[in-house]
Amino acid sequence: MPSPTWTPAALASERRRLSGRCWRVVEAQHRVATMKLVDTLAEQSMLEEVVERAKPAVPPACRHLHYLMSTPFRYGAPYPRGSRFRRAGATPGVFYGSRSVATTIAEIAFHRLLFFADAPRLPWPANAGEFTAFAVEVRTRVALDLTAEPLVRQRAAWTHHTDYGPCQELVEHAREASVEIIGYESVRDPVRGLNLAILACRAFVSRAPLERQTWRIAFGAAGVRAVCASPDVGLEFDREAFDADPRIAGLDWER
After folding, report:
1. What is the distance between the terminal CA atoms of the chain, rounded to a whole angstrom?
2. Residue 211 in contact with residue 134, Cβ under 8 Å?
3. β-strand 233-238 against 223-228: which pairing, if any?
4. What residue spans define the domains of the chain?
5. Is residue 236 within 8 Å of 224, Cβ to Cβ?
6. What is the pLDDT of residues 118-145, one digit of tens each?
7. Which residues of 129-166 are buried (b: 16+ CB within 10 A; e: fewer)?
8. Are the C-beta atoms of residues 183 and 195 closer than 8 Å to each other?
9. Taking the CB of residue 167, how many other CB atoms lie within 10 A of it?
């Protein structure tokens, strides 16, 4: 696919304001993993400090943030795989989130399905996996919206399921134009909700998550089911919602 070229100067003229909440989902194992290795909370705290020192350093501009927010910006070690707005290698971090919980649940479900697609003999988990959704407040005067004119004219490039090259080229020019957030269409969400790629920690208004929800996600022959206890809400994604991606199309849903 030809790469649509946007120079830093051209992107600077398309910058706009963006503010509001951004949701992100992580596996709910970020504290439990070390608990089974120790006998007391004090020992766990010491172990967490040791683990923290072994990780790549958090950039100075992000050190005031809660670890759930600063973790994506730890880029002292090479990024193992490329993503939509980040090339593989020693590249700047990106905090990926969504405007709505439903969109970010669809995103995490897709990436879990990629794991199962790469392990065709692995059966579906017997129990639903537990995930934490958390909301942060963001605000900037220098955002790009790929769903609005004129950038939406290259929608096919921005929403390709597997070729991230145009988006990775765009973000490099966007950083030169001092862009802090990129809004873009989710190709994993059946209703195509808005995703946010946060490029700079100064775009965060809050230093810590404002709200948290616990979600349980189960996979099976019919598709993906996700439930939250508080608020009491559930989501269902038919298997056809993910089949558009060629990496998922061959997944054995009857495992």
Report:
1. 35
2. yes
3. antiparallel
4. 8-249
5. yes
6. 888 889 988 999 999 999 999 999 999 9
7. bebbbbbbbbbbebbbbbbeeebeebeebbbeeeebeb
8. yes
9. 25
pLDDT attached to residue 220: 92
Give the tens place of pLDDT for each residue, 168-200. Answer: 999 999 999 999 999 999 999 999 999 999 999
Q: Which of 194, 210, 216, 197 has its CA nearest to residue 103? A: 194
> Strands 194-198 and 95-98: what pairing?
antiparallel
Is residue 32 pLDDT above 80, yes or no?
no
Single pTM value for the model: 0.90
Pairing of strands 211-220, 129-145: antiparallel
Give the Å distances, CA to CA, from 17 to 88, 139, 152, 154. 29, 8, 17, 21
φ and ψ at residue 37, rounded to 5 degrees: -95, -5
How would residue 243 be classed by pLDDT, with cut points 50, 70 and 90? confident
Q: What is the pLDDT of residue 254?
A: 87
pLDDT band at 232 (very low <50, low <70, confident <90, very high): very high
Task: Please report, as a single letter, which amino acid is at residue 92.
Answer: P
Amino acid letter at 225? Answer: R
State the burial class of residue 227 (Cβ atoms within 10 Å of its Cβ: 0-12, 13-18, 19+). Answer: middle
Residue with tokens 């994604």: 237
- Look at 46 and 210; give whichever has higher pLDDT: 210
Q: Record the tokens describing residue 3, joined without a space.
A: 């790469």
For the chain, where are the E strands, in sequence order? Answer: 16-27, 95-98, 129-145, 181-185, 194-198, 211-220, 223-228, 233-238
- Distance from C-alpha of 134 to C-alpha of 69, rounded to nearest angstrom: 10
State the amino acid at position 41 in one-letter form. Answer: L
